[in-house]
Design brief:
The chain is α/β, with parallel strands linked by helices. The chain has a single domain (8-153), classed as 3-Layer(aba) Sandwich (Dihydrofolate Reductase, subunit A). 19% of the residues lie in helices and 29% in strands. It contains four helices and ten strands; from the N terminus they run ββαβαββαβαββββ. It has helices at 42-48, 56-65, 102-111, 123-131; strands at residues 8-15, 19-21, 51-55, 76-80, 95-98, 117-121, 137-143, 151-152, 165-172, 178-184. The strands form two sheets. The protein has an eight-stranded mixed β-sheet. A two-stranded antiparallel sheet has the order 2-8. A hairpin with a 5-residue loop joins β9 (165-172) and β10 (178-184). The longest helix is centred in the N-terminal third of the chain and has 10 residues, at 56-65.
């Protein structure tokens, strides 16, 4: 008998043409939508989760955005990568590199007492979780920009399975963004 699996939320912004970042991982196209009065549900998400999962490129991007301090210090973070650093590599205290499969990683997080995981990205990592049937909720903010090319919402993964999600709600914002909240439905 398997232990219950913790839920996974993929909270992400994407361009109209389905990209979450430019080809080099850049997010500058999102900056014009930053607003101190509107966080697009970010604080609510942080109130529900207690751990993060991200790929190594997303991890490096997070470090570059806040080089003086790790922006997710209060949350346990797992970085999925095939490259595991040696003991001399200086990681923030809450960050662990792992080469576990998504299934095994969630089992580990559950056994450590975690209750809800934010799948931060990137696309390849999200594709691996989708392929394994491990995304329970998608909070997708559609940004009124067409990038033309970039990192796809679920990466360049071959043969993603057909996975059904049910629309829970939508919210539109004055800046033209539309946020859609989906929960896993029938496959």
């Amino acid at each position: 008998m398997h232990a219950p699996r913790i839920p996974v939320t993929y909270y992400v912004a994407a361009s109209l043409d389905g990209f979450i970042a430019t080809t080099d991982g850049g997010l500058d196209w999102l900056r014009i939508y930053e607003n101190e009065q509107e966080d697009y549900g970010y604080r609510e998400l942080l109130s529900r989760i207690d751990c993060l999962v991200m790929g190594h490129r997303t991890y490096r991007h997070c470090l570059s955005m806040s080089p003086a301090s790790w922006p997710y210090g209060g949350y346990s973070c797992r970085v999925l990568t095939s490259w595991l650093p040696n003991e001399n590599f200086n990681l923030p205290d809450s960050v662990t590199f792992t080469d576990q499969s998504p299934d095994d990683l969630l089992a580990t997080l559950s056994s450590q007492g975690h209750h809800h995981c934010w799948l931060v990205g990137g696309g390849e990592t999200a594709g691996a979780f989708l392929r394994a049937g491990l995304i329970d909720e998608i909070v997708l903010t559609l940004v009124p920009v067409a990038l033309g090319r970039g990192i796809p919402l679920f990466g360049n993964m071959p043969a993603l399975p057909t996975t059904g999600f049910n629309l829970k709600n939508t919210k539109s914002y004055p800046a033209g963004l539309v946020q859609m909240h989906y929960e896993k439905g029938r496959d």
